[in-house]
Amino acid sequence: MRANQRQGAASWGGVIKLDSTTAFSVPDCKGFRVNPGHSPQTKGHFLDSGRRRGTRTRTRRRTRMDNGSFSTGDTELDQAVEQWLQYDKNLKTASMVRDLVKEGAVEALKKCFSSRMEFGTAGLRAAMGPGTSCMNELTIIQTTQGFCCYLEDSFENLKEQGVVIGYDARAHPPSGGSSKLFASLAAAVFISRGVPVHLFSDITPTPFVPFTVSHLGLCAGIMVTASHNPKQDNGYKVYWENGAQIVSPHDKGISKAIEENLEPWPQSWNAEEALKSPLLKDPYQEIHTQYFKAIQKHCHHRDINKSSEVKIVHTSVHGVGHTFVQSAFKAFDLHPPYAVEEQKDPDPEFPTVKYPNPEEGEGVLTLSFALAEREGASVVLANDPDADRLAMAEKQESGQWRVFTGNELGALLGWWMFRCWKQQNSDAGAVKNLYMLSSTVSSKILRAIALKEGFHFEETLTGFKWMGNRARDLLDQGKTVLFAFEEAIGYMCSPSVLDKDGVSAAAIAGEMVSYLATKNTGLSQQLTSVYEEYGYHISKNSYFICHDQDVIHTLFERLRNHGGQKDSYPVECGRFAISNVRDLTTGYDDNQPDKKAVLPTSSSSQMVTFTFSNGGVATMRTSGTEPKIKYYTELCAAPGNSDVAHLRKELDDLVDAIIENFFEPKKNKLQPKPE
């Protein structure tokens, strides 16, 4: 869950022409919150209260550039722009701002300077461009200065232990920004304070950063990436000394420190000198070696892998994953997967896909399916651009391709990880020390497996920051954390990385496919076997797009004050009776004796879960990264109930009822998920 500037927003903004060859998309960040758990705090008040959402006109006011002075007619905006031009040494972003001033493009300036990105539990994420609302060299320096100061206050040994910084391949030529440059500037800030920096010399998957924090015993880690966001975005993701993403109150402390350190320090811009410093180390080779050594502990069928004739296709979707997945397959003695040539090399333009997100399914996998058909491959694996997520598809007997949902792949990997663990552990009592985790909006299939097999299952709030930190706590208690997953195709298959990891998951999935082939079965058949043994778990997840925070607020408040009665929730939805309500926005749970939710609550993000008498569970929540209201539904059947057609019909009817009665898309003018 990502920080408080609006991701993907640049594509919704107005376009200000700067010269005959260049256009700059100004992020339009109004209308939705990015970091659940943190209220959107606007630094400055430059937005006109009367301006309608979505306005695309430019307000021109008289400006004056004599002797460097100017006026937009808004004193606070003038001061923000003037301070920016004093601080910013990037010629491109400074020139963009000056051109906007010359043009009198006040509305565009407001979009750039109306708010400062708020540092949340996942750091920052926003469009690249000029101003305090965007990712650029100056905001990277300011953020890192604050983070450095916070670490200095938190760790006496910071100058002995140091930090690690990694980056993906994103770049934004119009503003001169790139992940590599941002990472170098972040390194310069730490080095200027005498802090050792382990800066990767080349692009890396996001999982390499938390792995490095744990492996080298560092104080913190930074990964410069926007994951699967649109191409104009970038991000700044932070890990704590325990190898997991930060949680509150660190985010608030870091945010405060950023506000207190906005003026660039003398050496913060000097990335070239920093790269020559003896405090700078390149961990690439060591971490590359140690990471693949660590994940080999999860290779249990090396002989089968060596002789397997299964053909697998892999795509990195123009991201960083290709080289690392090839190495992971080699570490498992699997035959190298066929790489989608058009997508295997990093390309910040993501030219072959509309969205570089394999979670979107078939559209992103079109080239993979074509290659699989040519090579006779039966399985496709796909990573997102920073290689921390994994999608998988299998060719069916009908000739069609089945793209597994995040929940289905979670069920398969969970089954596989436990099966391999059980074969390695003959002590019947060892299972009592074993844990699996998943997020509360993910399938409950791990719970069903745990109940039958005797290990522990826990659910956490949405996001791997919660699962990673909980896993760390359990590991510190001497427990074994075998597997964790979230429905958004995120899987943690090794405690060496306390975050989702699409690289290790790809190799483990490859071994699972090879093993199943020796039993003359495939992924779909095995998934059916899992459901028949532990009970069918049928899921249906989607979302509506909504840019209006007032509509979102009203929609959820209506659920909390059903029938006009305050603090009264619905007891039915259409023909479906509701047996339990849990509201993690208010902290209410009528399944608890004291009516108080066990999981942490957050008043600044919307999340309500309904449990139905027919075994269905539905969660409605706002997205932390996009203008979406998401819903997650699942129907959990007892083992032996194998009437899948009936279960699917029951779930479809339940979803229809939820949409009609709770979302009311026509009344609320909600846009459905694009097909």
UniProtKB/TrEMBL annotation:
Location within or outside the cell: Cytoplasm
KW Magnesium (keyword) present: yes
Gene Ontology terms, MF aspect: magnesium ion binding; phosphopentomutase activity
The organism's place on the tree of life at top rank: Eukaryota
UniProt record, GO biological process: glucose metabolic process; purine ribonucleoside salvage
Domain Alpha-D-phosphohexomutase alpha/beta/alpha: 117-262, 290-395, 406-534
Predominant localisation class: cytoplasm
CDD domains, sorted: PGM2
Keyword Transmembrane in record: no
Requisite cofactors: Mg(2+)
Family annotation (InterPro entries): A-D-PHexomutase_a/b/a-I, A-D-PHexomutase_a/b/a-I/II/III, A-D-PHexomutase_a/b/a-II, A-D-PHexomutase_a/b/a-III, A-D-PHexomutase_C_sf, A-D-PHexomutase_CS, Alpha-D-phosphohexomutase_SF
Region Disordered: start-end pairs: 32-73
Keyword list, A-Z: Carbohydrate metabolism, Cytoplasm, Glucose metabolism, Isomerase, Magnesium, Metal-binding, Phosphoprotein
CC terms in the record's Gene Ontology section: cytoplasm; nucleus
Pfam (any one): PGM_PMM_I
Bias (Basic residues) ranges: 52-63
Residue ranges crossing the lipid bilayer per the database entry: none
Protein family per UniProt: Belongs to the phosphohexose mutase family.
Stated name of the protein: Putative phosphoglucomutase-2
Species of the source: Scophthalmus maximus (Turbot)
